[in-house]
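Reagents: none. Just compute today. Methyltransferase domain-containing protein.
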Amino acid sequence: MRIGRICWKGAPVNREEISRIAHADHPIKAPLDDESVRQLLAKALPRGDERVLDLGCGGGEWLLRALDTGPQVHAEGVDVSPEALAQADEAATRRGLRERLVLHRQDAAQFAAPQPFDLVLSVGAAHAFGGLLPTLAAARKHLAPGGSVLVGDGFWERPPTAEAVEMLGDFGDLAAVVDSVVAEGWTPVNGHISTRRELDAYEWACWGGLAAWALDHRGDARSGEVLETADTRRTEWLHTYRDSFGFVSLVLRRTREDRA
Ligand SMILES: C[S@@+](CC[C@H](N)C(=O)[O-])C[C@H]1O[C@@H](n2cnc3c(N)ncnc32)[C@H](O)[C@@H]1O
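Predicted 3D structure written out:
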């Protein structure tokens, strides 16, 4: 789940490169399968002419799939990673969607736009804002009246160990997470709780994919370190958080449009 910083030959390894390899088979950088993403976007984009913003867009996969839902949809993505934005740029061009996509390289918490958005996405990027509720507060600043937020973040399926909390952050259980969101004036109108299959598939795609790259590139100077990273992350997943970590995606609307 986490992409850590690793070093070889005394120089920091480009963690974006590691992330790119690890997500090669899972362009959505969160534990949701294609059908779950499709269903959430279908609920969140009912009209087909929405303006969509993604705070922490990564390689832009959510936005590209949103743009695919209709030719009148327009999208903007914000991310701090130049590598991820370059990937989004390339993929949008390849898929014929580039003209309807604007990319911003900056801290999502500082992002300001002249016009509001009908849908604000932020999946797996709550750390950029300091947690789920600050993420929603940031998203709300960009939301057009009647708009929706699609947010995805962790929760504890079972009580975590202290090590798991240290590794992934402190969440509540599912009910506590949803209650906290409702208490901030949001109503969930749709959602998805990642299945065991989706959670495991994501971890295998990341750490299995990274290991496979290392084995396929034995001649590469980075191979040994990449394999070590894959081993470490797989071990952390299996030993530390697989039994406790869950992931929930929520489509939210303001309960009262006028509520501050
Ligand atoms: C786990 S990835 C999720 C990407 C995307 N939402 C997805 O689901 O495919 C988290 C992303 O948040 C970005 N990020 C981290 N801190 C950020 C910040 N302060 N502002 C904008 N993006 C940030 C990272 O660069 C990364 O692309």
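Confidence is low (pLDDT under 50) at residues 2-12.
Action item: order primers for follow-up constructs.
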